[in-house]
Amino acid sequence: MTTLATGPDTLTRDALAVLQPGFDGTTAPDWVRRRLGEGLASVALFGRNVVTEAQVTSLTAQLRSERDDLLIAIDEESGDVTRLDVRTGSSFPGNLALGAVDDPALTRAVSRELGRRLAACGVNFDWAPSADVNANPDNPVIGVRSFGADTDLVARHTAAWVEGLQSTGVAACAKHFPGHGDTNIDSHHAVPRIDVDIETLFARELPPFRAAIAAGTRAVMSAHILVPALDPDRPGTLSRRVLTDLLRGELGYQGLIVTDGMEMRAITGTYGLEHGVVLAIAAGADAICVGGGLCDEDTVLGLRDALVAAVRSGELPEERLADAAARVRRLARWTAGARDGAARTEPDPEIGLTAARRALRITRAGAPAPLDSPVHVARFSPEANIAVGDETPWGVAAELSRLVPGSTDGTFTGTDAGTHALAAAGDRRIVAVVRDEHRHAWMRSALDTLLAARPDTVVVEMGLPQAPPRGILHIATYGAARVCGIAAAEAVVAG
After folding, report:
1. Tally of CB atoms within 10 A around 62
2. pTM above 0.90?
3. Catalytic residue among 85, 182, 260, 305
4. What SS3 state is found at 38?
5. Which of 180, 188, 224, 440 is catalytic?
6. Which of 172, 343, 398, 462, by CA, is between 20 and 30 Å from 472?
7. Does the annotation mark 372 as catalytic?
8. pLDDT tens figures, 274-311
9. Catalytic (active site) residue 188
10. Cα(116)–Cα(126) distance, integer angstroms
11. Mutual angle of helices 30-38 and 297-313, in 10-degree steps
12. Nearest-CA neighbor of 175 among 145, 202, 201?
C-alpha cells in the first residue's frame, strides 16, 4: 500500500476525522489507539465487540483514555437489530412494535431507557432510529425496523424516539435518507431503486425526516439507493443533489450526515470502496461508516490516503473535507455537553417488556385448548438479512420451556419443513413460530402442512404480520426481540 500522508498534519487529521471505523476484539486495539492520537475522532462498535455491558464500559474507557472527545457509535436500533444485546436478544421491542401500540410517550420512554443504558456504557452516538416508511411489505431489509407503513405514524414516532434518546446525551441518527422503505433489494447486495415521482417522495418518504430534524436529531444517515426523481445517476450517499441540495438546502438540516456502511455492494460493486468514500464526502457526507465487514488498520489508512490524494489532485475540495471534519468534532462536543446536562433518570428495566406486551395482536379461532402439558416449538427460520445478522437468538422456545417445563423445540427450513416439524413434535401440541410468512412460500407451505394435520396449532408471527392470521391462536409480536418472545410465550400459556 502506498502511503501519501506521512504525518499528522491538518489534512491528514481531517481525513482521519471523517472516518467512523470498526475494529475486531473486545478491547481497544493498539492500532486504533495510535490513530486516535493522529486525528481519528470516531469509532464504531458492532456485535463482535460486545460481551457484557461491563466489558463495553471498560472498552469505551480504554478508548477515551486516548481521546476524551471521542464519538463512539453503535448500530443499536433495538428489536431485531441489536448490538448491545446481540447474544441474548433485545430488551426492547423494535420500531414496528412501538408503531403498533402508537403511543409516542411509550416510544419516548423506551428510547430514553435505551439511551440511559448506552450512556452508562460510554456510547454517545447511536445509528438509529429508522425513519423509513415501510411502503413495500416485501422489503427484504427494512420490515419490522420501520415504525410502519403510514407516513404520519412513522413521523411522530421518529420524533419521539429521537427526543427520548437525546435526552440522555446520546446522539440520534435518523436513517436511511431519503427513505429505504419502498425497495425490494437489500443495499448490502446491490443498488436498490425507488421509481416514484417527486410528489410521492415528498409526501411519503420525507415527512419522517422532517420530523426528526424538527425534533433536533444530531445526525442523519444516507441510503445507498437510487432515486431517479432526485438523481438518475448516483445513489443517495454519493449524490450532491440528495445530500447537499435536498437535505441541507431544501430541508434546512445542519447536523452531521453519516453514510450507511460503505462496504455494501451498492457502493463497492460499482465505485470501489476508496473512490466511493471520496465521492460521498464530495457529495456532502461528513462521516464515513465503515467496519461492519472491513475492520482492519489497512482499510482505515487506505481511506485516509484516498481522501488526502483526492484533495491534492483537486477532485475533493479541501474546504469540503475540513467542513466535514469540523461537523464531526462539533457533534463530539455536543455529546460531551449533553451528557453533562442530561437529566439523571431512574432505570426502568421493565419498560421494554411492558411495550412488547402492549404490542401483541392476538386472534383466536374458537376456544384454544388449555396449555396444560409440554409443547413442541417449531421455529421456521428464514435466512437473516445482514443488518439483523444470525448471531442473535429469537423465538419463544426458551421462555416456553421455563413456563411449561419439558417442552421441546426445533428449527426447520425448506420445502419439507412442515413434515419434519410434525415428525419431531410427535403427539405434543405444536407452537409454530414464523417470521414474515408472507415473504416465504416454503414457510406458508409448512404452516399448511401443520394446520391440516394439527388444527390446534398455535402460530406466533414474529415478523411483519402481513399474512392472514391462522391457527387456533395467532399471536403477532411485530418483531423478534427477546421481550417480544417473552410476551408471546405468556400469551400462548394464557390461551
Report:
1. 15
2. yes
3. 260
4. helix
5. 188
6. 398
7. no
8. 999 999 999 999 999 998 888 999 999 999 999 999 99
9. yes
10. 12
11. 30
12. 145
